[in-house]
Write a structure and sequence with these properties.
Layout: E1 5-9, H1 25-28, E2 31-32, E3 36-37, E4 40-45, E5 50-55, E6 72-75, H2 83-87, E7 89-95, E8 98-104, E9 111-117, H3 122-134, H4 149-167, H5 173-186, H6 194-197, E10 202-207, E11 213-218, E12 222-229, H7 232-246, E13 256-263, E14 266-273, E15 283-289, H8 296-301, H9 307-318, E16 323-327, H10 333-341, E17 349-354, E18 366-371, H11 384-390, E19 398-403, H12 407-418, E20 423-428, H13 432-442, H14 447-450, E21 455-460, E22 470-482, E23 485-496, E24 500-501, H15 511-518, H16 525-539, H17 546-553
Parallel strand pairs: 1-4, 9-12, 16-20, 16-21, 17-18, 17-19, 19-20
Antiparallel strand pairs: 2-3, 4-5, 5-6, 7-8, 8-9, 10-11, 10-15, 11-12, 13-14, 14-15, 21-22, 22-23, 23-24
Length: 569
């Protein structure tokens, strides 16, 4: 775990009865016994219903909060009854206008999560309740023109702030802003979970059925159970919101839907199901995209892949390999796809075709994004398969297809690759052989068409509920041409998590050596070694970031010819 919060229970008379006075360890000693170095400290005052939080890695407080130190103070009604907060806190931090607290559960692999608005006193808490009562739900009174959720929240915040300013002009700007924002959140259908939606470390949120607590996957803390829940009365508002944002059907005739939604810098993919499909009422999963997507360097740093695998993938993308990224649900496929996308040259013309928009717009890039109807939309007119075929006339340098799901998607994909498109996409499967078997046996793809794929990357989530992901295997596709027809010769493993990159296993009829020969060199091995050196310098801050990696690899005419002689090239 990268961070830890140390908790200290303050006596009723504060510092005068503190056992650590006159040098309280909340100020002088940021080290937590048994947990490593703390990045924050939290003071609990149950008698005053107040929590104080200071971040050691930001501004170290020079005094306790009641003596003017730099702390975030939060009023929590009934704090003395929240024993979990008092005894088992492992992590606390602020996110937007909220304080998030994570507590360890005994005899459970899941952590508990609580969140509170950043109001500092009982008066501010009552002001928040009053503003919430005065505000209308942001879904009410929708004009004929659909207004995105983010804009409606922004309008609600402005109206709330105007009300507070008019009624209580002496209230500080900070308090007005926090009260107005939290009130705007609470008056949406998703108001009870906004602290999760704003948190960049929350990866996926789950609701099994109304009335149960939501639970979620955290990038550092793994699976957590939230204090938030959606009631039966919330369900109709949630469904109305999703219909409004997506302009798609969600009813008994179409009881499931996948769509994307965004507000501020947050982008989310909603997957929902209703009766009669979902027996116990609304079922919902929310896949969150990070505000700042993970880069190749960060994926290497967090253990998703070793550096030599990063070099292999960067070289393949720069050489415009046809790549399939496969794995089980929530194994990190889209995260890896976006990280690789950021390494491509800025002058490339890239076309994206997605049913839920999970790609990222980069600065100074040439990107065309198409959003098609999801598979769940039975009467959809914007077909992913037809848009893939249309891309043949849109002159892309690289096509990013998101998730390939259905038989029609697969057939369109291989038809496009056979016509010369270079693509990268994600697919669900537990292994490369499993994916090829699915294509051939279930989707009716001819083996000669499968030979159009260059590389298959498999990711796994080692343990259910864990935040860890890793690249478990990479294979290149072997092929030959016989009597003018491409033949599929099988798969060649070039990386295995246990053995590493298999440097002696490059197949003569595999994608890497074939692409190297096409580039006029006998092998790609020297270029791969040079890319590894480039990533090594990049990880040390010597070479420029992802935005230039692809351009640097093309500086010698072709990535397979890449030479790297000077630091900071």
């Amino acid at each position: 775990m990268e961070g830890h919060t140390r908790t200290k229970l303050c006596p009723k008379s504060r510092c005068s009865e503190c056992a650590d006075a006159p040098f309280p360890d909340c100020i002088d000693n940021p080290v937590s016994g048994g947990e490593g170095r703390s990045d924050s400290v939290m003071l609990l005052e149950p008698e005053r219903n107040t929590i104080h939080l200071a971040r050691w890695d930001e501004i170290r407080p020079e005094a306790p909060p009641w003596e003017g130190g730099d702390w975030e103070s939060v009023y929590v009604e009934g704090l003395s009854q929240k024993s979990d907060l008092l005894d088992n806190v492992i992590r606390a931090y602020t996110v937007g206008p909220y304080l998030s607290i994570f507590c360890r559960q005994e005899n459970s692999a899941e952590n508990l999560h609580f969140f509170f608005p950043l109001v500092r006193t009982a008066l501010e808490s009552r002001l928040l309740d009053t503003v919430c009562a005065m505000s209308q739900p942001v879904e009410s009174g929708l004009p004929p023109r659909r207004i995105p959720l983010s804009e409606r929240i922004r309008n609600s915040m402005q109206m709330n702030e105007a009300r507070v300013t008019e009624a209580l002009p002496e209230v500080s700007h900070r308090t007005r802003a926090i009260v107005s924002e939290v009130a705007a959140h609470r008056n949406t259908a998703l108001g009870s979970i906004f602290a999760l939606l704003l948190d960049d470390d929350v990866e996926e949120i789950y609701l099994d059925r109304p009335g149960l607590p939501l639970y979620f996957d955290h990038s550092e803390l793994g699976r957590c159970v939230s204090s938030a829940y959606l009631t039966v009365s919330d369900v109709s508002r949630v469904c109305t919101l999703i219909r409004s944002e997506s302009n798609l059907h969600l009813d008994r005739a179409n009881p499931s839907l996948k769509t994307d939604m965004s507000f501020g810098n947050s982008s989310m993919r909603f997957s929902v199901a209703l009766p009669p499909l979902s027996t116990d009422g609304l079922h919902m999963e929310i896949r969150k995209a990070r505000c700042n997507p993970l880069t190749i360097r960060e994926l290497i740093h967090n253990g998703t892949m070793p550096r030599d695998v990063g070099a292999l993938l960067v070289l393949a993308v720069a050489a415009r390999f046809n790549i399939a990224i496969t794995g089980g649900p929530s194994s990190g496929k889209t995260t890896l796809l976006n990280a690789l996308d950021m390494t491509t040259p800025r002058h490339w013309r890239k076309i994206y075709i997605e049913d839920a928009v999970e790609s990222r717009v980069t600065e100074q890039g040439h990107q065309v994004r198409f959003r098609v109807d999801p598979v769940d939309e039975g009467r959809g007119k914007l077909s992913k398969s037809s848009e893939i075929i249309k891309t043949l006339h849109r002159s892309p340098d690289y096509v990013i297809l998101g998730e390939i799901q259905s038989i029609e998607h697969s057939q369109a994909l291989f038809q496009a690759m056979s016509a010369g498109l270079r693509t990268i996409q994600t697919c669900h499967s537990d292994s490369a052989p499993g994916l090829v078997t699915r294509w051939i046996n279930d989707h009716g793809i001819k083996p000669s068409s499968v030979a159009m794929i260059d590389m298959i990357v498999t990711l796994v989530k080692p343990a259910p509920g864990s935040s860890a992901r890793r690249v478990s295997q990479i294979v290149e596709v072997r092929r030959t041409v016989k009597d003018g027809v491409v033949e599929f010769l099988g798969l060649n493993e070039v990386f295995d998590w246990k053995c590493g990159v298999l440097s002696q296993s490059w197949a003569k009829d595999g994608a890497f050596l074939m692409r190297a020969r096409e580039a006029g060199v006998g092998t790609h091995v020297e270029a791969l070694s040079n890319v590894f050196r480039l990533l090594d310098e990049y990880s040390q801050g010597i070479s420029p970031g992802e935005v230039r990696i692809g351009e640097i690899l093309w500086s010698c005419g072709n990535p397979m010819q890449f030479q790297h002689n000077l630091q900071g090239t």
